[in-house]
C-alpha cells in the first residue's frame, strides 16, 4: 500500500501527464490552424506543408522518396 506521500506524488505525476498531453494537443492544433491559414492563399493545405518541407530540405527528391517519407 502506498504511503500518503507516495499517493500525493502519484497524483501530481498523473496531473502533470494530463496537463502535458493537453498542452501538446493544443500546440498541435494551433500549429495546424496557423499553417492552414498561411497556406490557403497559395492553394495548399496543411498536409501539403510536410511535402513542401521535405522537397525544400531535399532538393531533387523523387516522388518515391516523398512517398517513403510520408509513409504512403
Automatic annotation (TrEMBL):
It comes from the Bacteria. Gene3D superfamilies: Winged helix-like DNA-binding domain superfamily/Winged helix DNA-binding domain. InterPro entries: WH-like_DNA-bd_sf, WH_DNA-bd_sf. This is Uncharacterized protein. It comes from Candidatus Acutalibacter ornithocaccae.
